[in-house]
Amino acid sequence: MRKEKRSSLFAETMSRIWSNPGAKVGIIILVIIVSACIFAPFIASYGLNEMDLKNMFKGPSAKHIMGTDGMGRDLFSRLLYGGRYSLALGICAAVVGSVIGIIIGSVAGYLGGQAETIIMRFMDIWSSLPSMLLCILISAVLGAGFFNTVLALSIGNVPIGVRLIRGQILSERSKEYLEAAESINCSKISIMFRHLLPNVISPVIVDATMGIGMTITMAAALSYIGLGVQPPTPEWGAMLADARTHILNYPYLIMFPGLFIALTVLAINLIGDGLRDAMDPKLRK
Amino acid sequence: MSLIEVQNLKKYFKVPTGLNHAVDDVSFKIEKGETLGVVGESGCGKSTLGRTMIRLQDATGGKILLNGNDITNAKGNELRRVREKMQIVFQDPYSSLNPRIRIESTIMEPLRHSKLYKTKAELKDQTHRLMELVGVDERLRQSYPHELDGGRRQRVGIARALALNPDFIVCDEPVSALDVSIQAQVLNLLMDLQEKTGIAYMFVTHDLSVVRHISNTICVMYLGQLVEKASTEDLFLNTLHPYTQALLSAIPSTDIYHPMQRVQLKGEITSPINPEQGCRFLARCPYAIKDCKQPQKLEEIEKNHYVACCRVREIN
């Protein structure tokens, strides 16, 4: 008997992303960076805070491929370790922000009426505050640290997710399958999350992916002004901040962290673009 | 006692300019195993009537009785039980199935919610039995709706409605989105199911040949009100209300020697928003007189033939 090929939404999306050259490049770059960061202890030839005071401010060489910083620490090793924080911050904040946004947005979109008006006006106020400012405010109040930074960074992503999800739900709300679900005794929660959400979530996933890139730059910015991850923890933004006094004398100290940030963000944005094309239901066969 | 009895049912929608009288003072009964056809032009409130009856929308006034119990305001567990007895088949099989849920799960869902079946195997068995009953091949169980054609999707929709063994199904134009050949298949399926299970239908449609084929009794609606109600045969052979006459004369004739004399209606449809008290067909009726501005009542003109027109005796 012929075995019928059935692909889930996930597998289908993946295969379609892979056929997009831009997204393919993005995935390859990201996989390399992420695995290098995860396996940092095996790749880096020096420890995280291993100082070599005889070799301060050495430019790139065979011994230190990206040179050393003001304390003689190997820049390449620190970039790999630091990537763990930057990536984790970016991903966690984008996911947390979007999940909160999705929940609030679904409630607003599905309930409608007064509840929707109140939530949406509140979101208008929320998004009228510059997200960087909110971010600084929250980390200043809560203090630095990984979780506080995640919280501060995710705040800015919430209203975007709410708006996106609500807009999608408004266009989906009148579809008959929701009435059908109601007529077969589905609970409101089940209609909202089992029936409605899978049909409206694609743009939010795309947006959250793009958001990771933006959040990484935001995290770097926070660390740069000293509110994010604290030294001596290596984080790309913090490393940039450390190097800013040497920008004229030792430009490589700023170039390499900057390059890592730029490459990662570029890769994520390429994937996000590919994802948007892949998840567009109008392009499905 | 009738299976379903609707008494003076009203459903008004608030719109910026007033109240839209979508269903206004409609009463009828449906017996077990019977099919009631509801016909009327687009926007006359037939779908709203169906949706209000099975409590997808709350009625503004009047009563809905199921087996003699008032279910107009049923809530919570009572409403859940009511919904197991009354189901709906939707017009558009493309939007009535969730595009992200496989066929098998779609049919299984009402069974899962009813908690009648304890084990997974029982659930699957029952689902496959339903698929067989409506003629959906078992190999399609893992398919998504977009992989199926319109007729098959509608069969899935019917299977979902049948899952809980309802006594009554509202068919909201179930074949109007399908090809003619598929229409016949689905209609025959519905009639076969009625023979097997004694289910009652309310068949909402604007397709007069379909309604003639399937119904025992037909209600003609115009702007939210019933204007004529009679057995199918009676309605087609002895049409009394001027609106029904115009409606039936619009059925295309295949007999070239005796072409239908079409009754051409003039004028615009009256707005259903805050309508006048009198006959709503007044503005387009060729027989309208002053008396038509009085409220019209559905009267039994002949045995089991109800008409809402004060001039019905004069004009026929």
UniProtKB/TrEMBL annotation, chain A:
Q: Which CDD domains match?
A: TM_PBP2
Q: Which InterPro entries does the record cross-reference, listed alphabetically?
A: BP-dependent_transpt_permease (IPR050366), MetI-like (IPR000515), MetI-like_sf (IPR035906), OppC_N (IPR025966)
Where is the protein found, in the record's own terms?
A: Cell membrane
Give an example GO biological process: transmembrane transport
> What keyword terms does UniProt attach to this protein?
Cell membrane, Membrane, Transmembrane, Transmembrane helix, Transport
An example of a Gene Ontology cellular component annotation for this protein is: plasma membrane
Residue spans crossing the bilayer: 25-48, 87-111, 131-156, 204-227, 247-272
| Record-annotated ABC transmembrane type-1 domain positions | 83-272
Q: What is its main location?
A: membrane
Keyword check for Cell membrane, yes or no.
yes
Provide the membrane topology annotation: Multi-pass membrane protein
Family from the record:
Belongs to the binding-protein-dependent transport system permease family.
Q: What is this protein called?
A: Peptide/nickel transport system permease protein
**Whose protein is this, by species?**
Kineothrix alysoides
Automatic annotation (TrEMBL), chain B:
Please provide the record's keywords in A-Z order. Answer: ATP-binding, Nucleotide-binding, Transport
An example Pfam family from this entry, by short name, is oligo_HPY
Q: Does the keyword ATP-binding apply?
A: yes
List, in alphabetical order, the GO biological process terms annotated in this UniProt record: peptide transport; transmembrane transport
- Bilayer-crossing residues are none
Any idea where the ABC transporter domain is?
4-248
Q: Name one GO molecular function term.
A: ATP binding
Asked if Transport is a keyword of the record, the answer is: yes
The text of the family note is: Belongs to the ABC transporter superfamily.
The protein in question is named: Peptide/nickel transport system ATP-binding protein
Q: What is the protein's species of origin?
A: Kineothrix alysoides
